[in-house]
Amino acid sequence: MNFRLSAGFIVLAIFISSFSCSNQPNRSRKPVVQIKIDYLNKKIVYGDDLTINLTIKVKDGQLQETKLYVDSALLTSSTETEFTYSLKKFNSLGKHTIKAVARKTDGVEGAYFKTFEVLSDIVPEMYGYEVVQTYPHNETFFTEGLEIHNGFVYESTGENGKSALNKTNLKTGKTIQSIKLADKYFGEGITIFNNHIYQLTYKTKIGFVYNLETMAVVDSFRFESAEGWGMTHDDENLIMSDGTNLITYINPTTYKTVKKIEVYDDKDAVIYVNELEYSDGFIYANVWTTNLLIKIDPKTGKVLQKIDLDGILSMPDSSKKVDVLNGIAIDPQTKKIYVTGKLYPKIFEIKLVKKG
Fold first, then answer.
1. Is pLDDT at 240 greater than 80 in this prediction?
2. Is 6 helix (H, G, I), strand (E, B) or coil?
3. How far apart are CA 94 and CA 115, in angstroms?
4. Does pLDDT of 25 surpass 70?
């Protein structure tokens, strides 16, 4: 090929390419949404009024519509580039997400998010305790679930290879019945409901159902939480914890999740919610690694009371091995409160005493 012809061809190609690119239309840009939340206090608390302010910037084209959501629920839509929306007396604890989706007339849209957290509007009442009576407790039991039924103690114990479901005599501490779990299961919380014992396991997402009288396994179920911790029930549903601040309600027939609540006090989420007990319309729970019990409003997740059990176990023999406080049972007939812990030598009947 002639060098001059080749060079001329290259120049022509570059010219054509430049001309072609310069005439291509610019790519449509997404609209940009700025989200601002106005509220009265330094922190958002249950029942606050919230005002959501949106500003939409469109660099090219025209705005068609902006849709505003909270937790995937559509609140409103607008064609304006600036608008506000008021949430009156917002009454859901925990973390929430605002989503704004702005769409232009050419179909290009931008989605933007902002999170906020709602704390309880109640400062929990502080309680201590008095020991009314003590009962013997098997010191080898790694307590995960505790129930009182017809005067007997039903207890679920943990650790792989040692987990079991036990029925014991409250006064003597002697085991009457015991069902060992397969070594792969780590036993967790239990509850007695409709003449059955329901038991969670730790990380296998499996629960077992036992006949109350024979303690024979009659069913099993899967739950959606990553871990099983504590368990109780109300008049309709099973209730479980998973080590976070979430409490999950489960249908006892289908085992499907009915709802979830988040546990909060006036300062933060309360995590490590563990062993559970339901009594007189309230949920009581151990907080793992602490000597603290909390009383929870099951409708909202608010912590109503904090019960400090520090000093309940004094161990003069330092060679005795114990773990953390875990296990709360309230006798449905007498309303007496019983607590114990992993590897504890005693079960304590306690009376709550208000501080201050």
1. yes
2. helix
3. 10
4. no
Helix (H) or strand (E) holding 249: strand 246-250
Residue for token digits 């050419």?
Answer: 106
Locate 183 and state its tokens: 């070594």
**What pTM was estimated for this model as a whole?**
0.86
Tell me the fold of 32-118: Immunoglobulin-like (2.60.40)
Rounded distance, CA 184 to CA 204, Å? 9
Q: Domain segments of the chain: what residues?
A: 32-118, 125-354
The residue among 116, 72, 114, 122 whose CA lies nearest residue 301 is 122
Q: Three-state SS for 176?
A: strand
Q: State the fold for domain 125-354.
A: Neuraminidase (2.120.10)
Question: Three-state SS across 47-115?
Answer: CEEEEEEEEEECCCCCEEEEEEEECCEEEEEECCCEEEEEEEEECCCEEEEEEEEEEECCCCEEEEEEE
Does residue 233 sit in helix, strand or coil? strand
Q: What digits encode the pLDDT tens for the residues 268-286?
A: 999 999 999 999 999 999 9
Q: What pLDDT shows up at residue 323?
A: 87
* Residue 260 half-sphere exposure toward CB, CA atoms < 13 A: 15
